[in-house]
Amino acid sequence: MAPNAEAADKGEIMNSIPYKNRVALVVPIAPAEAFQKIRKTRMQEFKSSIVRNYEAALSAATGRLHLTDYHHTITNHSNRGDIAIGEASLQAVNEIWHHGVQVDIYGWGELSEDIVKPFNEKYDAIILGGGGYVFLNGKGELNHRSRDINIFERLNMPIIAYGIGLNRLMFEDTYDLSDINALPAETKNYLERFCNRVDVMSVRDRSAYRLMQEFSTREVFLTGDPVLVYKPPPVNKYKPVLQDNYVGVNMAAHGWRAIVVLKKVLPALEHNLRIISKTEHLNYFVHENMEYPVGKFLSKRGVKVDWVDGTTDLMLKKYGECKFVISQMLHSAIFAFNAGTPVINIAYDLKCTAFFELFGLERFCIPWRAASKEVIGRLIRDVAQDNVAIRNAITEGKKKLCSDRDRFIARSRSTLN
After folding, report:
1. What pLDDT is attached to residue 14?
2. Whole-model pTM?
3. What is the rounded CA–CA span in Å between residue 96 and residue 301?
């Protein structure tokens, strides 16, 4: 069937569906999934307890972090960044449907063939909200999310993708996007199907933009991550008061790959944090529950930190109080930029570099393999010296992204109308 005829048939199908004033928002973590406790048998928990105590003692004795993700993980879906993506995406939905609409929220993991019939019966549209929805390994192969296209192609409704990103872990070899044509045939087939099934698409950074625009027949909007423009509800509005001696800290320990990277960079980080802690107040921003053992390790090593953990609104307020932040997690940087706070990022994924490039601040985002004591120390001096200029660059960068976001919202409305 010719593309125009296919589009016409699709339009006729959608126009024949009664208006329901109800949409499905699909995000990395649905509210009902957040912080679910992992169920272990008594024997499994007993073994994990022994391992946790042993690793804590070994870390204290050797001065090097010992951490096994299985035994220290107590809850699933505790990534504060992914949770915030859901909150920010819901705000975008309410902007698109400014007259009001009922929104049902699902997690990415809930997508299956079983949802096709009920979704077609209940919803006017589906919105994919943010996050690293596309993941490429070093060979250019996709992860299991690629199976979702078989579901999307059976849905008789518009699909809107908001702020979706491209993840490429730097733990292994990363795929170079300079030659998109060299991608595996299966990957290219999926991207073409996905891009042309999604009716309106916005992406998180220029790497994702380049990839999606290559396969899409429609305009792709560069809006940044949804959390970058998240606004606290009126009841929680605040104006952070900058504290001259507050410095934020965050590290990545979500999964064994992140832990391997963390163990490599931690000695250089600890060295510089110990120096900073003599004159500055360190706030540790928890973005995933596996980070608690890391902060406790630092405290026992003489690097005192105060914990910052809570709602998105609370964390944004505290980020806004910091002079600057040293982070690993991408959403630690995004939270900070939302609050206008400069960041030094030690990247474990190319998505971190791509985010900083949006603001012309990529020199403050270094690959984890380059994170020596000297390099981190130099960046700390630079971020302190250029603090005002960096804050201005963040403000200007957000203005440009918000302009494209406004066009994305308008295009989404016109498509649905």
Report:
1. 46
2. 0.93
3. 50
Contact 345, 170 (CB under 8 A): no
Our count of domains for the chain comes to 3
For strand 36-37 and strand 75-76, is the pairing parallel, antiparallel, or unpaired?
antiparallel
With the C-alpha atoms ordered 285, 287, 293, 297, is the resulting torsion angle positive or negative? negative
- Spatial contact of 210 and 216, defined as CB atoms under 8 Å apart: no
Pair (201, 285) in one structural domain:
no
Q: How far apart are CA 266 and CA 270, in angstroms?
A: 6
In terms of domains, do 58 and 106 share one?
no
| Matching residue, tokens 């957040």 | 34
Tell which residue, 144, 163, 158, has the closest CA to residue 221.
163
Q: What is the Cα–Cα distance from 30 to 221, expressed in whole angstroms?
A: 25
Tell me which amino acid residue 94 is: N
Ranges under pLDDT 50 in the chain: 1-16
Residue 282: DSSP 8-state: E
Please give the single-letter amino acid code of residue 312: T
CA 124 to chain centre: 27
Instruction: Mark 355-389 as b/e (b = at least 16 C-beta within 10 Å).
Output: bbebbebbebbbebeebeeeebeebbebbeebeee
Unique residue bearing structure tokens 């569906």: 17
* Residues 24 and 127 sit within 8 Å (Cβ to Cβ): yes
Residues 18 and 143 in one domain: yes
User: Which structure tokens are listed for 121?
Assistant: 């019966």
Q: Half-sphere exposure (CA, 13 Å, Cβ side) for 29? A: 17
Please name which of 163, 106, 118, 104 lies closest in space to residue 331, comparing C-alpha atoms.
Answer: 163
Domain CATH for 307: 3.40.50.2000
Cβ distance 125 to 157 under 8 Å?
Answer: yes
What pLDDT sits at residue 237?
Answer: 63
Q: What is the DSSP string of 73-112?
A: --EES--HHHHHHHHHHHHHHHHHTTT--EEEEEEGGG-S
CA 94 to chain centre: 21
In angstroms, the CA 18 to CA 187 distance is 35
- Tens digits of per-residue pLDDT, 216-258? 999 999 999 999 999 998 766 666 777 778 999 999 999 899 9
- Report yes or no: 81 and 334 within 8 Å, Cβ to Cβ: yes
For residue 293, the enclosing domain spans 234-385
Give which of 276, 272, 295, 275 is closest to 346, Cα–Cα. 272
Are 172 and 24 found together in one domain? yes
C-alpha–C-alpha distance, residues 361 and 376, integer Å:
15
Q: What is the pLDDT of residues 86-130, one digit of tens each?
A: 999 999 999 999 878 999 999 999 999 999 999 999 999 999 998
- 297 and 369 co-located in one domain: yes
